[in-house]
């Protein structure tokens, strides 16, 4: 059974710092990995998606890496800003057979709550 | 596109009452997911549909929960009878089939359910 963990559970940094969020998963047979951001009282917004054949993806100040063999992904945020304060979740997708179909199973980590102080 | 639309945004109901949550996926998306989020258990996949057909409902907690997708633009999640432990945020999400960028899943803003 796929399990996803995230470290740290919470992080508080001063504005301008570079930071790294960590995600680990137990089953390396994944289809892709996504990083999401969740603001209080809101849904999840996809930030980056890394296919299983890729090693990293970049979007602006965000860079996500994937090491499938070791079951790890990191989200790097450069020059953090107060507006980056949110909960960041990673989710892995695995393919599985359900009855007569192949489906996708999404497993989310518990998230890292980030506070960037002005 | 307006994104994934959920209703109601907030609901407070008494134990034993029936609760119906509604979702309109993004037009053209053929996958629809229902998730539940709590502090204790995080985000859990309850059920998902492909082309209006339920594919995996193994996450549905018990028979009190049911979900339907009568057409490509509407889905419901029903709890009958509701219990206080059902209090959570229920998210609907959708995505298009395909690979690459189509794997991105889009979430609604959630339905906040409180059962007293």
Overall description:
The complex is a heterodimer of chains A (118) and B (116). By secondary structure, chain A is mainly beta. Chain A is built from no helices and eleven strands. In chain A, the strands form two sheets. In chain A, strands 2, 4, 5, 9, 10 and 11 form a six-stranded mixed beta sheet that branches. In chain A, strands 1-3-8-7-6 form a five-stranded antiparallel beta sheet, with no helix packed on it. In chain A, a hairpin with a 4-residue loop joins strand 7 and strand 8. With 116 residues, chain B is mainly β. In chain B, 0% of the residues lie in helices and 53% in strands. In chain B, strands 2, 4, 5, 6, 9, 10 and 11 form a seven-stranded mixed beta sheet that branches. In chain B, strands 1-3-8-7 form a four-stranded antiparallel beta sheet, with no helix packed on it. The mean pLDDT of chain B is 91. The A-B interface holds A 31-32, 34, 36, 41-46, 49, 51, 89, 91, 93, 96, 98, 101, 103-111 and B 4, 31, 33, 42-43, 45, 48, 50, 55-56, 58, 91, 93, 99-101, 103-110.
């Amino acid at each position: 059974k796929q399990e996803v963990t995230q470290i740290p559970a919470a992080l508080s940094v001063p504005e301008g710092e570079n930071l790294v969020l960590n995600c680990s998963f137990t089953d390396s047979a994944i289809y892709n990995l996504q990083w999401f951001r969740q603001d209080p009282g809101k849904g999840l917004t996809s930030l980056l998606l890394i296919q299983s054949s890729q090693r990293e993806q970049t979007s602006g100040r965000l860079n996500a890496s994937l090491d499938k063999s070791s079951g790890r992904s990191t989200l790097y945020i450069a020059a953090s800003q107060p507006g980056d304060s949110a909960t960041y979740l990673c989710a892995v997708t695995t393919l599985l057979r359900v009855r007569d179909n192949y489906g996708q199973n999404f497993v989310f980590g518990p998230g890292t709550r980030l506070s960037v102080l002005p | 596109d307006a994104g994934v639309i959920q209703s109601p945004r907030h609901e407070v109901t008494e134990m034993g009452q029936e609760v119906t949550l509604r979702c309109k996926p993004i037009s053209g998306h053929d996958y629809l997911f229902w998730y539940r989020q709590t502090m204790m258990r995080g985000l859990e996949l309850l059920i998902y549909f492909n082309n209006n057909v339920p594919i995996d409902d193994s996450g549905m907690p018990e028979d009190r929960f049911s979900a339907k997708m009568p057409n490509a633009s509407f889905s419901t999640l029903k709890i009958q009878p509701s219990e206080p432990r059902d209090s959570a945020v229920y998210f609907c999400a959708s995505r298009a089939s395909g690979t690459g960028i189509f794997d991105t899943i889009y979430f609604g803003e959630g339905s906040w359910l409180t059962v007293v």
